[in-house]
Every structure is written in C-alpha cells, then in structure tokens.
Amino acid sequence: MKFTLEYKADNSRARAGVLSTDHGDIHTPIFMPVGTAATVKGVFHRDLKSEVKAEIILGNTYHLYLRPGLDILHRAGGLHKFSAWDKPILTDSGGFQVFSLADCRKITEEGCKFSSHIDGSKHLFTPENVIDTQRIIGADIMMAFDECPPAMAERSYAEKSLALTHRWLKRCYNHYEQTEPLYGHFQALFPIVQGCVFRDLRSESAKYVSDFDAKGYAIGGLAVGEPAEQMYEMIEVVNEVLPTDRPRYLMGVGTPANILEAIDRGVDMFDCVMPTRNGRNGMLFTWNGTMNMRNKKWEDDFTPIDSTSNSFASRQYTKAYLRHLNISGEMLAAQIASMHNLAFYLELVSVAREKIIDGTFKQWKDGIVNQLSQRL
RNA sequence: GGGGAGAUACCAAAGUGGCCAACUGGGGCAGACUGUAAAUCUGCUGGCGUACGCCUUCGUAAGUUCGAAUCUUGCUCUCCCCA
Known about the structure:
Radius of gyration: 20 Å
Strand order of the largest sheet: 4-15-14-13-12
Distance between the termini: 42 Å
Helix content: 40-55%
Shape: globular
C-alpha cells in the first residue's frame, strides 16, 4: 500500500493524493460510503461504481461478526467475494459500537463485553480478536480497536479512556504483525487518535500513534456532539503532529461543510452515514443546500431532482415524483435518495481534489461552504 | 310495507351525565439524524394566544339538568334483515 501526494501550494493544508491498494487506487480526498452489514443500503454495487463513483466502501466488524458470522465470511473467501465488491474495503473495528451500544456493554482492560443487539447473546471483543475478525473479512484497511468517548466526557475519563485506547492499539499492532492476510492481498492497520476535545490529549495521542509505522492514521471521537468549531480545532492540533506523507482518515464525518473544512485542515479520507441514512429519511444534499423531500412545497415541482447530478435517477425523476415516493413510503425513494446523496458526496470531494491540484481550493471552499448552509 | 342498528374532528374509531376540545390508529404538516441496533425517531394536527386561558364543536331542532357528545322528543339521512 502506497500513498503519493500531488498538490500545489495554497494557503490551505488541503492535499490531493492517491492511495494504492491491491484492489485499486483511491484518489484523495475521498468519501467512503458506509456499508455496515455488507451492503451500502439500497444501492447496487453496479451503481456505486457507475453513478456514485465510489472507490472504497466501509464494512463493520461488529455487524459482520454477528451476522453472517466469521465461518460464512471465511468460507465465502472474505467480504469482497461474499458481497461481489472488487474495489477496496475498510472495516471499522467495532470501536464505535463500544460507544454507541453503551446500554449493553462493559469495558475492561481485556476488551469489551457486549450483548448482541440481534439476539442478546454475550460476546467479547478484544484488540486481538478484532484483528483476527478483520483478517477473515479481508478488509484492505483494518481499524484499530478503540474506545470512542462521548463529547461531554470529563477530563479524568478522557485521560483514562485514551490510555486504554493506546494500550489496545499496541496489542492490535502486535497481533497484526503476528498474523497474515488470508486471501493474498495486503491489509493495512490504521491506528486511531482519540483525546476528546482536549488539545493536549489530542496532541499526545497523535504523537503516540505516529510512533507506529502505519500506512495511514485515523482521527476518531469527533462529531459526537461537540460544536463543529471544536472539532475543527482538534483536527488542526492532530494534523500538526501526524506524518504528512500518510493518509489521514476522519472517522464518521460528516456534513458536506464539515468535510470541506476538514479537507482544508489536511484530512484525506471520510465516511459518514448521513448520505444514506438521511437519504432514506427523505433528506437530499445538493450544491445549494439540503432539501426535505417530504415537504409540501415539492408536491407539484416537476423539475428534475438535480439536473447536474451524476446519478441518473436524479436527472430523470422529478422532485414531485420523489416527494410522492417518500410520502408513500416506497422503497424506491430511499434508493434514489441514497444514490443521489452518495453521488453528491463523491462529486464534492472530487471537485475539491481538482481545486487542490489547481491551487485554488481555499477560495473555492469558502464560497461553497456558504452555499451549502442553505435549506431549500 | 314491517322490524332493527346507527350518525363523533380529513378518514376510521373510542367515549354513553361533570376528570372531554374529546382515547387510539391512519392520513396530513414540520423537525431530527455525523466510524448505521435507524426505509427510523420526535412534535403538532378545531380557532385565537408564548402561556394561564377564552371561543366554537360530537347529524339537526327543541327540551331535561347546576352541568349534555352522553338523557328525552321531533326531524333528516345512512346501513342491515324480512316482505
């Protein structure tokens, strides 16, 4: 796995690069559609390639471990084969579930005990077995097992949590180095920076993870409820420390404006459920702002959903039709919106990349962020 | 022609003397959603008011009562059964 950077000097930290994997090149900055349970909900792989122009998608260790389970994934020959996706895959380690399933889990030094949300059965994730699971899934990029504390975490908790995440990272790395890929393609392991909203903890964490010679680094624990400005500040602090010649992945972020601001601060990779989840719930992202497709004002708007979209559905179907589908609870509404939103997100980062290479990113970004804040 | 049942808000449907501006569901309107336990969740849905509240509503007209969607009578309409 190799990362090459190519960009003109600008008054921004934005970078354009290419991350080469055994399943193909990823042009950064990139947005990675979330495909938690071995599917980007509502979108065919064919359309992810031709319409959305996705270059890499996510999977989730927690969900895939529970269903279909490791035996099936292993016998299928890994997630690429199982789901018929031949481009890169990144898997989250289950660290985020350690946070989001707070009601039914217990964190110890060893790892995290949790109850399955499917059948209540008890399981244990450890830094070691999470690596094993991601080996079986066959992700091109595996994530370290971390704890993602809530936005309002106290300083004392943040320190304790960070120390645990660091100890877990060391164990992840040791186990990573002692194990081999199962399907013949290289698998990277990305460490995750934590530290809540404390500058010194973030800086310390960035230093700590930088000591591991990883192919890329992730910034976790942001966009969990803190103000956007605070998130941007943390990104700046962290990116001052992380190696410049490796990709930086901001986990779980975010709105189109969040992404542009993070690119401006040197982030290369993003993922977020917003384009798909919000899309399923009737929300569309466009260059001019967001639209709630359930709103009455679209009832008789017979113009295309978005005539400039890469998604054929957004060019062919009208707003009035999509509103009707949403109001009627038709599954096609979710499919159209998911494809549209993902295509927009990918176009957003693709145009950002062009502007970075032009050396005109900063100026362009400021104008677009203003435009994106609209509510249509 | 004879007998029976019923009319409640956009729809359906509870309520059968005061705790009823009226349960609940649907529909409608709006909002939320950031490493997906989410095709989910929340709020509003007679009028005016931020609110205490006030006003007008349970087919229609009259009546009983301190008080009526609820009881009585007339009328109108609907449905079912028998001829």
